[in-house]
Design a protein that fits this description.
- The protein contains 9 helices and no strands.
- It has one domain (26-96, 107-203).
- The longest helix is centred in the last third of the chain and has 39 residues, at 166-204.
- The relative contact order is 0.21.
- By secondary structure, the protein is mostly helical.
- The protein is 78% helix and 0% strand.
């Protein structure tokens, strides 16, 4: 087993997903939740990320090939979703409570942000999925696949532990600080979405790079 390969794979995940950098986003997305709900959201999000990336590792390329989807096209789709989420953040609408008649009768529940947008596309986004696809294509031996799966599980545990620092940030910033950061992060995410779309367009239309 080549430990250098797994170290490179693991560090690449940390760099691309950047769970520490996502802490302010996580705090923003869960500002309407209690501490217990926030902890559960972090756990679900990281579990979802691990599942998504393991599925990508095992059959991701086959799924894209099945639907004739290229990585650049996937980047454009992911970037578009990020832009829509960013626009909601800029308008301060993300995390609003939405009720239907059944929820009103039972006691309304708030939007779950654990899977969308936190796990997908913010964490397991086009960059992370593309990285996993590249490694799975280059290192397809069963032992290597098992090793990379273990790396993904360890990453999920580490990222989940980092997310537990979110309550400290929430207490320091307060609701006013969270509202300010919501707009700032929305603007940054909008920029990220545009960059991801631009990378996808360059992949689909190489002439744009000239």
């Amino acid at each position: 087993m080549d430990l250098t390969l797994y170290l490179q794979f693991f560090l690449g995940l940390i760099a691309i997903i950047n769970p520490i950098g996502l802490l302010p986003v996580f705090v923003t997305l869960t500002s309407h939740q209690s501490e217990e709900e926030r902890r559960r959201t972090g756990t679900i999000a990281n579990f979802a990320v691990v599942v998504i990336l393991i599925v990508t590792l095992l059959i991701g390329q086959h799924i894209l090939d099945m639907f004739s989807i290229s990585i650049p096209a996937f980047r454009i789709a992911g970037g578009t979703l990020i832009m829509f989420i960013a626009m909601s953040m800029l308008q301060g609408k993300l995390g609003e409570v939405k009720h239907n008649k059944a929820e009103d009768r039972e006691s309304a529940t708030k939007d779950s942000v654990a899977v969308v947008p936190l796990a997908l596309p913010l964490m397991a986004g086009p960059g992370a999925i593309s990285s996993v696809l590249v490694f799975s294509a280059q290192y397809s031996e069963p032992v290597e696949t098992v090793g990379m799966t273990i790396c993904l599980v360890i990453f999920g545990l580490l990222s989940g532990a980092i997310f537990r620092l979110a309550p400290v940030i929430f207490k320091v910033l307060g609701h006013t600080g969270i509202n300010v950061i919501t707009r700032i992060m929305g603007l940054l995410m909008l920029s990220i979405g545009i960059e991801v779309i631009a990378a996808g367009l360059k992949g689909l239309f190489p002439i744009l790079t000239h």
